């Protein structure tokens, strides 16, 4: 007797798989904020808040983690007679890594499940689902004191999810042709030789500028860590004054860890000489610091105060970043502008000087634009009084960083031949 064949299961549609993948990411990232909020509520840290109120607070924290602004309503006498509302906006760069990495994982899984030219189906389903979740959270977490616009809740969270999905899918596929069906390498190969040289030169300039920003940010993070270590006693004293218990101290610490990348960017702005502000009328630069009353946030105990005798030494950070960028550009071997000048002039001193100055200016511009972007996304506003201006001025950071990186790029490209000289063979 022959048994009937087992019915084949229907494959899951790609759009539905995208919905499930990013739905999991939304739930896991929500737990990151829901668990600390629940712990504080269970220990009585929110006074007489009802469970529904604590849940709405967790929803608002999830939105803020994704960069969604909140509209705050202040009672009379808190923000002044003519300022009854304000906009709280902060993008904690440390916390947003959680949904971004979860989306990166989802992107890799979706790329494995998709054929060429089909990833857009999963991507579309995932984006629609994440937008719907963001809008639902914005609607459900609305309170008389704070609310998020539904449009912002629907449009802003998918931005980090899209970045994670695309980078994760590309990491899994290894080439854009396997994702979108377009072979960019073949397209570039059909262009003229001059176009390929110009493209290689421009791409090398952009990567050098990116390297300069990353090096400056990393060195600034080291400087921030040193400042925290040297001022740990003051930071611990602020913790003691808060006296929020284990749950409260844990929540404050998690919030500060989420803000550490923002503070590293502010330190980079400080090292360029542009400085940053902690409220309207305040200014922190390598030469002097002028601040007013600050919120009781322990990490602020590491701020420099008064006049710094050797603060100008921090200006070496962006110059060193430019030096490494110029050296890297020399190692990359894509200085086709110098080759073009050599074909048109026999005066090597002139062509070498012109090409070096050109690459320094272009690397400086690329680094300056990168500095503008990171300074802009690191800014914050508490929506109350003088604390609507927190962070560096993006334009000032871009100008100072471009100038100092350009100086360093000249030095790095000049010493490149000395550093890359092969050892003599005996």
Describe the fold and architecture.
The protein has 426 residues and is mostly helical. The chain has 2 domains: 14-186, no CATH class; 191-419, no CATH class. It contains 15 helices and 9 strands. A hairpin with a 3-residue loop joins strand 5 (283-284) and strand 6 (288-290). Helix 4 (119-140) runs antiparallel to helix 6 (157-173) and helix 9 (193-230) crosses helix 14 (348-378). The longest helix is centred in the middle third of the chain and has 38 residues, at 193-230. The model has no long low-confidence stretch (mean pLDDT 83). This is DUF6350 family protein. Keywords: Membrane, Transmembrane, Transmembrane helix. It comes from Arthrobacter burdickii.
Brief characterization of the structure:
The chain is mainly alpha-helical. It is built from 15 helices and nine strands.
Which keywords apply here?
mainly alpha, four-stranded antiparallel beta sheet, 426 residues, 64% helix, three-stranded antiparallel beta sheet, 15 helices
């Amino acid at each position: 007797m022959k048994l009937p064949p087992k019915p084949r299961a229907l494959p899951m549609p790609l759009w539905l798989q995208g919905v499930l993948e990013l739905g999991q990411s939304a739930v896991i990232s929500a737990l990151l904020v829901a668990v600390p909020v629940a712990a504080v509520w269970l220990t009585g840290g929110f006074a007489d808040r009802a469970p529904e109120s604590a849940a709405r607070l967790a929803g608002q924290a999830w939105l803020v983690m994704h960069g969604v602004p909140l509209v705050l309503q202040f009672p009379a006498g808190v923000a002044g007679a003519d300022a009854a509302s304000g906009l709280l906006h902060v993008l904690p760069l440390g916390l947003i890594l959680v949904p971004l990495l979860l989306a990166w994982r989802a992107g890799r899984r979706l790329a494995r499940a998709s054929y060429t030219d089909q990833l857009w189906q999963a991507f579309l389903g995932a984006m629609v689902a994440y937008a719907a979740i963001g809008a639902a959270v914005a609607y459900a977490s609305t309170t008389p004191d704070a609310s998020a616009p539904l449009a912002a809740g629907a449009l802003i969270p998918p931005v980090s999810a899209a970045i994670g999905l695309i980078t994760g899918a590309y990491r899994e596929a290894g080439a854009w042709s396997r994702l979108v069906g377009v072979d960019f390498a073949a397209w570039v190969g059909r262009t003229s030789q001059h176009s390929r040289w110009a493209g290689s030169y421009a791409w090398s300039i952009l990567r050098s500028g990116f390297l300069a920003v990353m090096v400056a940010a990393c060195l600034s993070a080291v400087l921030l860590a040193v400042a925290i270590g040297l001022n740990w006693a003051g930071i611990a004293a602020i913790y003691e004054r808060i006296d929020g218990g284990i749950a409260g101290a844990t929540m404050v610490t998690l919030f500060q860890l989420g803000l550490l990348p923002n503070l590293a960017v502010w330190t980079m702005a400080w090292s360029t000489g542009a400085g940053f502000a902690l409220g309207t009328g305040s200014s922190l630069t390598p030469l002097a610091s002028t601040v007013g009353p600050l919120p009781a946030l322990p990490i602020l105990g590491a701020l420099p105060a008064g006049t710094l005798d050797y603060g100008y030494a921090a200006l070496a950070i962006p110059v060193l970043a430019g030096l490494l960028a110029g050296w890297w550009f020399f190692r990359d071997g894509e200085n086709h502008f110098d080759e073009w000048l050599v074909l048109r002039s026999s005066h090597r001193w002139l062509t070498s000087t012109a090409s070096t100055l050109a690459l320094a200016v272009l690397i400086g511009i690329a680094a300056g634009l990168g500095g503008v972007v990171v300074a802009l996304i690191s800014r914050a506003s508490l929506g109350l009084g003088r604390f609507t201006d927190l962070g560096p001025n993006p334009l000032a950071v871009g100008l100072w960083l471009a100038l100092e990186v350009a100086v360093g790029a000249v030095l790095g490209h000049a010493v490149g031949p000395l550093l890359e000289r092969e050892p003599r063979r005996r």
